[in-house]
Amino acid sequence: MSIPTLARRLGLGDAVVIGLGAMIGAGVFAAFAPAAQAAGTGLLFGLGIAAVVAFGNATSTAQLAAVHPTSGGVYAYGRAELGPWWGFLAGWGFVIGKTASCAAMALTFAAYVAPAGWERPLAAAAALALGAVNLFGITRTAQLARVLIAIVLVVLAVVAVVGFAAPRAGTATWSDGVFGAGPVGILQAAGLLFFAFAGYARIATLGEEVRDPARTIPRAIILAFTGALIVYAVIGVVALRTLGPDGLAASPAPLVDVVLAAGWDAGAPLVRIGAAAASLGALLALIAGIGRTSFAMAREGDLPAFLGSVDPRWQVPRNAEIAVIVMVVGIVALGDIRGAIGFSSFGVLLYYLVANLAAFRQSGGVRRYPRVLQVVGGLGCMALVVTLPWPSVPVGIGVLTVGWGYRMLRLRRQGRRRTP
């Protein structure tokens, strides 16, 4: 029986666009407000810390992807470099954490465009619609991602210009200074903002569908990361300058409030369109990435086998993507944005800890970056995970325990079947 595989259809531009769509939607419109709640003006230091940790993780991912160009991202890399249990830990953390991210993006989309009381139904409808797009092939995903990211970048450029032209927020809102929240608050903001950078992993999870993967994936990861960092830095400064830390922390739609504070009421609908496009772009890429990781895990026997099937016409892991959509809709019905972001960050920090360990282990000609970057990335992941909002850590540990128990039971059943 042949092992199901996916077709290589994506080029460098497609991969960069999918990565940018995953990162920019996640960070600009969702993560700054909870980061301001944690650290006030110090969120800019948190952004810097998150960027350093994320860069270490990005280079580790790029180095691994060049050697292991297959679906599943760090799940596949962990299995190959460290062993099956490490791969499972990374894959389970990614699938569960990023499913929560999907819910956060769907709820962010609805927060900007839905009438009062219709946020959750519209968020669920968005997840269903984008899941349907993904079912028609990865090239359809890339085409829609190009349109969405173009809209987002135009809108963010307008917000930046308007925000810098607006009056600065009153000095009273800055009275605590950048260190007012203390190191714990800054690190908590870094953990929340790390959620924004993690979209480059989507490029790696699509490794089985990228042409010339050893060359394309590392370049796409670094290009997407650099572009997203520039956008985050500019918009973070604009939001703090215009709203102040207290106003930013209290805002359910910060970039709308930026243009309103500048006196440009007519710009609010434009920003809402950009926020909707960014959130949808992130959601589109997330569903694709989780589906591929679930597919890879099922192909190795770490998830139920029915998730490992490939649609013969569209060459997508159809059952895996349908399962992801069902889970996202369930979380949308029950969760909230801040809780989803915190839980997602827990799972993704664990995922990248495994990536750094796997890349650190590589040697010889496959090494592309100095080991110090993997040390920085790994230590940063461990430091940030303990600063996340308190419900995120125990819930995350509980979900990991469920996954561990599931794999143990599966291995025991396999052992019994093999016993004569």
Automatic annotation (TrEMBL):
Topology relative to the membrane: Multi-pass membrane protein
Subcellular location(s) per record: Membrane
TM segment ranges: 12-36, 42-67, 88-114, 120-137, 144-166, 178-200, 220-240, 273-295, 316-334, 393-409
Entry's Gene Ontology cellular component terms: membrane
Claim: Transmembrane helix is one of the keywords in the record: yes
Keywords, ordered alphabetically: Membrane, Transmembrane, Transmembrane helix
Predominant place of localization: membrane
GO BP annotations listed: transmembrane transport
Domain Amino acid permease/ SLC12A per the UniProt entry, residue ranges: 15-337
InterPro entries documented for this protein: AA-permease/SLC12A_dom, APC_superfamily, TAT_signal
Any matching Pfam family: AA_permease
UniProt cross-references to PANTHER family, sorted A to Z: AMINO ACID TRANSPORTER-RELATED, MEMBRANE PROTEIN
Protein name as annotated: Amino acid permease-associated region
Classification of source organism: Bacteria, Bacillati, Actinomycetota, Actinomycetes, Micrococcales
